[in-house]
Design brief:
Blueprint (H helix, E strand, L loop, with lengths): L6 E6 L2 H10 L13 E5 L5 E6 H7 L13 E5 L3 H13 L4 E7 L4 E7 L5 E7 L5
Organism: Micromonospora azadirachtae
Pfam family, one: Glyoxalase
Protein name: VOC family protein
Amino acid sequence: MTLRFDLIGLVTTDMARTLDFYRRLGLDIPAGAETEPHVEVALPGGLRIAWDDVTMVRSFDPDWTPPTGSPRINLAFRCADPAEVDRWYAELTEVGHHGQLKPWDAFWGQRYAVLHDPDGNGVDLFAPLPAAG
């Protein structure tokens, strides 16, 4: 069997707030999922993302402890255009989510911004910059 990358799993301390954050980014998360200890959804292209609350994780790994320090990975969401990067960043920070880096034009040719989800995971927003003419 050939390995296939299939799922990104995240641990959350507040399922409702976390799912609200990802719904705002456009993920199709079923209504009522915030009451479940495990939630997963399929993303376009077949990759899945899942969230487990701390109680669920400790049910099979009683010694689990949350990591400390800065996130080591970020989830990156491609936006339609640079204005959409700015719009998503503004919308999410206006409702209280942490903005790590405000939108900027990166030297590698993208409009880029970095947020943190409610558990401190890095969430990048990016879009290609128009070609210089």
